[in-house]
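## retry 2 of 3
previous attempt timed out at serialization; input unchanged, resubmitting
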Amino acid sequence: MLIYFLQSVICQQLPPYHQISLEYQQEGYFTADIMIGNQIQKMIIDTGSHATVLDCYNRDKKDNYFIHQNSTIQVPCNDKCSNCDFLGYYCYFSISYADHSQIEGYYIREKVLIGQQKYNIQLAAYTYIGCITKRNNFNYDANGILGLGPAFKNSNQYGNIIDEISRKDKTLKIFSLCLGTKKGILNIGIYDQLIDGQTLKMKTIKNSYRLNLKSIDYNDLSVDISHLQKEGGIILDSGSTYIFAPQNIYSGILKMINEDYEVLDGLPCFKLDLELIQFNFEETQILYYPDEFIIEIQGLKCIPLMQISGEKRLILGLWWMRNKNIVFDPENNKVVIRRTNCDDIQLKEVDVAGIEEDNKELINIENKFFSIENSLKFVLLFVFQEYC
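## retry succeeded, writing output
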């Protein structure tokens, strides 16, 4: 009887619109303000990794690092944990990113609220978060990373935040990103507006979303990409700033455009006017126009392309994803892409009649039950995880 009562109070239905404003940072990534525990954290939006990770130590003398709270639970070493610390007490993680930065630490569980704070309309999850204790070349002004990539299938990896949110409602498994030049939007569970977009098949392998890209064309020339599908793959990664290519693909693209170039700030730059670049996928072609990719440096026209050594994969990063509304549908193994001016998109106005007060009450209840005594807290957490 108690379970049913708690379920009726805690598991209220939220409205269908779940949107988060994103801001572009000069370091080359988008961030969202996410409530973790009772602290707002500025999180990098990353489709190239699956874990939500936070800086839990004030090593840089910042005021906005994450502080453990009454609601924070450290995850013990058990059968569901992929790695344990050397004492065998806590669940440990080690992650390497595409830019060769690395982090280590331990997992905690904590409440996360994600959505429109303006209307108190937010999705709640009690999820796994990595607390960073060691890092190498991991230097960001943001508080952490919100990983939206897939977890390894048939493994003990913890899922991403959307996996947790969508446990009881599979429609929330779908999400979309629209990234402009200055701002963007993350939509969770919204799909019907993009049915008329271009549909590409997608595979979820090793924490990444992989596409079937065959070749890249410029004028009448072409560079074959298809062999990478059997190796490191073609990866859609919002956490990487540019397009990253192995040496042979990198050289082939530059030779195709013009061999007379110079490298400025790590990017190849040209004196001539550039034409559109065509990406030929197995299902369709996507055009990449000069006004979408040209970066002007010292009067030259540069392209967002960098070389990655020792890896056989192509990363389509933030600059490729810009001004495209991209729907990720991992349940149906596809992405839907439509060209959009993402800077002009506004958060949908929500009819809050009868909803705002209900959700204020829901948020208040959640805040209360995450800060009360542990015995009752665990009962409420059980209801929240198993029945909501």
